[in-house]
Amino acid sequence: MAEGPTINTIAERAGVSIASVSRVLNGLPTRQETVRKVLAAAEELGYVRNAVARSLKSRRTHQVAFAMADIGNPVYLAMVRQIQPVLKAAGYRLVLHSTDAIAADEIDVLHSLGERYVDGLIMSPLRVTEEHLKMIATARAPVVIIGSVPEGTRVDNVRADSRTGVKLAIDHLYELGRRRIGFVNGPLDTVPGAARAAAYREALKERGLPYDEEIVEVGDFYRAEGARAARALLDRAPGVDALMCANDLIALGALDVLRAAGLRVPEDVAVVGMDDTDLAAASWPSLTSVSLGSAERGKAAAELLLDRLNDMDRQPRVVTVAPRLVIRASTVGEATDHQARASTGETVNIPLQSKGGTP
User: Is 341 left (phi over 0), alpha (psi -120 to 50) or beta?
Assistant: First the structure.
């Protein structure tokens, strides 16, 4: 029977030392370029690692978990598309958890880190409770949080500057001549809901516009809830000339309601979403949206986790991703949108550097 590939043949194929191959296959800290070479050579040679034996020896599983609120939300899909290749290049598999934003489920995921079924966790909770913070502080494996946590929390953290993002949207609508700008938000007890509510008030104040509770409605971060909330707002305040929506799913629900009411977008009511998901460009009319860098946040979180696995003693780091406004037909009309695309070859982007705000 022919002998299968060994670490010697892998080392020869990869052009690295036998010791480097051993370090990679046993999950020990190694330069990423070396990891890529060794894994590529092992795959070419058909080397099959004994995962059970390796994990017992190295105390690593070479798996990382990502816990998110809703696996069907395009925001999290954009994150996964960036997290997975970064981890795969380093020899890790990705395990997905959808928690439905239930705090008890998220706490359970944090608690289960003690079972060592993964080497680390990336988590994006909508609510951060005292129990979350307690479990993060005592976690038995590295954790990276996507989203805001209280200042001083010792955890690697990737944030979106949604406060600046809301300001970009309100400024855009104001410059288009909109003065009665309604707001459809998600739950106020969530991190993004609270941040975006505060940012909406601040943005109106900066433009000299009054805050009016009659044109604010709170729902949830889903399309059906967005439609319900938008309908309630329009029934109560039919004179709004723009809607700022706390995410794209809410905005799509609002577009459904406006069409059903016979209102033209953007002639009668302009609409802006947040997240700039794939659905924004595919909607009708195409949706102006604030990109919060979902893909960039996912990539940054994966890189922070790998850095932590290679250096467990380093100080926690915070990465803030700057927002940008992506202008489409729901605010400027199809003709203007088409002209912009024709002249630039892509959707109009107005970048703004982060000033350190939190989502």
Answer: alpha
Range with lowest mean pLDDT among 55-59, 102-106, 292-296, 352-356? 352-356
Low-confidence winner among 14-28, 54-68, 168-182 (lowest mean pLDDT): 54-68
State the Cα–Cα distance between residues 43 and 40, nearest whole angstrom. 5
Q: What is the pLDDT of residue 339?
A: 53
What's the fold here for domain 162-291+323-351? Rossmann fold (3.40.50)
Percent over 70 (pLDDT), the chain: 87
* Rounded-to-integer distance, Cα 223 and Cα 280, Å: 12
Cβ-count burial 330-353 (b if 16+ within 10 Å, e if not): bbbbeeebeebeeeeeebbeeebe
Q: What is the mean pLDDT of residues 271-279?
A: 97
Which CATH number is 63-160+294-321's, of 3.40.50.1860, 3.40.50.2300, 3.40.50.970, 3.90.800.10? 3.40.50.2300
DSSP, residue by residue, 27-82: T----HHHHHHHHHHHHHHT----HHHHHHHHS---EEEEEES-TTSHHHHHHHHH
Q: Read off the pTM.
A: 0.79
Average pLDDT over residues 270-296: 97
Which residues, in sequence order, are bridge partners of residue 123?
67, 145
Where do the CATH 3.40.50.2300 domains begin and end in the chain?
63-160+294-321, 162-291+323-351
Question: What is the DSSP track for 82-150?
Answer: HHHHHHHHTT-EEEEEE-TT-HHHHHHHHHHGGGTSSSEEEE--S---HHHHHHHHT-SS-EEEES---
3-state SS assignment for residue 235: helix
pLDDT given for residue 348 in this prediction = 42
